[in-house]
């Protein structure tokens, strides 16, 4: 993802920044515009990394309406944008040069009204109109040129390292300023489009709550999340609040700003939450993959690190990790021969032997390196081979038993199991007279943090209560 706009942590606002007078246009691709061409070239890689596109006409219409309002008040209303909903549970949104904007299912699940979604999209549109991806790349090239030149004029290793660190800090500050610029432009766009300008700091606060929840609930892979590229800080939230206040004081229609909550909730009702049938999902301590037609049990103390179209990865507090994936398999090769083909470094060839798992032919082996030991199992089914890799530090207790119990539970998914364990979805319900956060949170399925997750996805503080007649999100079948 060469041109993802990186967003860092601490900010110093520079009011010299403004939207570019010459934003990159996607339609310039036909005229050999290299930036738009490169943005378009990244699109297939983005889809592959994030589980492809999530096709939902209702959601697409909702986003198109929001983007249309924002474009009309943007610095360049003639620019074309390509907005894609990514089929990923990761909470993320980002932009590529050429007008490509991406938002994940996870991001939509965290938002609570149309104005918050508009805040995210306006922020990304601002990155594009200000040419942040291009400017950051140019800055990186400019900074990288100095150490390479200096290395030929007798600098010591320490001086070279100091130069490199200084360049990294300069680039980080450059990116931080870009982030504040995108916040400022985005909040102004929100206001002009008729949305609540306070939606921006409100959603940033939701992101902080998401960060706290994630820290207690899972050992997730940060690299695909919004917080990896868009860290929120108290300084950034204060900046967004102050910007929204300033705009609100000068806005003639301050009392008519729209959050459009009902339209948003209607749009996300029945949207898949968490893993999808295309990437697999966790239900009742089982990994279920309808697309591949397989399932297996997950040890109870393991938490998901990553679940994408590439692989499912989980780990335990004892630092035992499991990876499960599938790749094309040549029909003229045995499972044992596949293990010996060089797929795993450090393989103990003498340990390779055929086994049977739930009536399916398979192969098992061990591998080792300086720090880790590995239990490896492969199971070929038709033209696909399923691969389990369980890793643990040397001398880990119960390592082999954990690996064996998991791999021996692997089996083909029956129609009955699939009906019993469907993917989870967001359901929108109306609060009744006697409903409380406690009793509604118990409707949340497959999470030990029911109340915390309920408050998180509904934007509720630890002390807030429910209003009769309001609509809230729950996670269930």
From TrEMBL:
Keywords: Hydrolase, Metal-binding, Metalloprotease, Protease, Zinc
Pfam family, one: Peptidase_M48
Cofactor(s) in the UniProt record: Zn(2+)
Domain Peptidase M48 positions: 58-239
Protein name per the record: Peptidase M48 domain-containing protein
GO cellular component: membrane
BP terms from Gene Ontology: proteolysis involved in protein catabolic process
Entry-linked PANTHER family: METALLOENDOPEPTIDASE OMA1, METALLOENDOPEPTIDASE OMA1, MITOCHONDRIAL
GO MF annotation: an example: metal ion binding
InterPro entries: Mito/Outer_Membr_Metalloprot, Peptidase_M48
Protease keyword on record: yes
Organism annotation: Bartonella clarridgeiae (strain CCUG 45776 / CIP 104772 / 73)
């Amino acid at each position: 993802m060469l041109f993802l706009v990186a967003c860092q942590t601490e900010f110093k606002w520079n009011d010299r920044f403004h939207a570019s007078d010459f934003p990159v246009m996607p339609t310039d691709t036909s005229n050999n515009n290299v930036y738009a061409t490169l943005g378009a070239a990244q699109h297939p890689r983005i889809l592959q990394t994030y589980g492809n596109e999530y096709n939902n006409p209702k959601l697409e219409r909702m986003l198109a309406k929001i983007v249309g309002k924002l474009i009309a008040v943007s610095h360049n209303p003639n620019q074309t944008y390509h907005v894609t909903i990514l089929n990923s549970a990761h909470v993320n949104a980002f932009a590529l040069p050429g007008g490509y904007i991406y938002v994940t299912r996870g991001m939509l699940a965290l938002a609570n009204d149309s104005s918050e979604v508009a805040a995210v999209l306006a922020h990304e549109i601002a990155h594009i109109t200000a040419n942040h991806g291009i400017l950051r790349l140019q800055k990186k090239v400019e900074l990288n040129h100095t150490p390479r030149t200096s290395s030929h004029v007798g600098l010591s290793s320490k001086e070279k390292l100091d130069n490199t660190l200084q360049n990294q800090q300069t680039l980080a500050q450059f990116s931080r300023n870009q982030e504040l610029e995108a916040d400022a432009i985005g909040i102004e766009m929100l206001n002009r489009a008729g949305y609540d300008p306070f939606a921006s700091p409100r959603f940033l606060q939701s992101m902080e709550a998401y960060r706290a929840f994630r820290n207690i609930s899972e050992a997730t892979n940060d690299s695909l999340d919004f917080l990896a590229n868009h860290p929120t800080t108290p300084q950034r939230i204060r900046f967004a609040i102050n910007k929204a206040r300033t705009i609100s004081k000068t806005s003639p229609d301050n009392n008519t700003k729209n959050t459009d909550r009902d339209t948003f909730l209607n749009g996300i009702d029945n949207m898949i939450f968490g893993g999808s049938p295309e990437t697999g999902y966790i239900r009742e301590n089982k990994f279920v993959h309808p697309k591949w037609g397989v399932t297996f049990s997950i040890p109870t103390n393991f938490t998901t690190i990553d679940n994408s179209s590439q692989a499912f990865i989980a780990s335990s507090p004892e630092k035992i990790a499991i990876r499960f994936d599938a790749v094309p398999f040549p029909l003229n090769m045995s499972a044992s021969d596949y293990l010996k083909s060089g797929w795993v470094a450090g393989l103990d060839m003498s340990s390779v032997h055929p086994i049977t798992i739930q009536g399916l032919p398979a192969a098992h082996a061990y591998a080792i390196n300086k720090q880790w030991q590995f239990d490896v199992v492969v199971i070929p089914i038709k033209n696909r081979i399923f691969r389990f890799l369980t890793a643990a530090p040397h001398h880990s207790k119960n390592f082999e038993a954990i690996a064996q119990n998991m791999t021996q539970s692997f089996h083909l998914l029956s129609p009955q199991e699939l009906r019993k364990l469907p993917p989870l979805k967001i359901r929108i319900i109306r609060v009744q007279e006697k409903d409380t956060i406690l009793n509604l949170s118990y409707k949340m399925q497959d999470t030990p943090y029911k109340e915390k997750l309920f408050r998180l996805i509904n934007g509720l503080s630890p002390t807030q209560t429910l209003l009769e007649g309001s609509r809230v999100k729950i996670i269930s079948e």
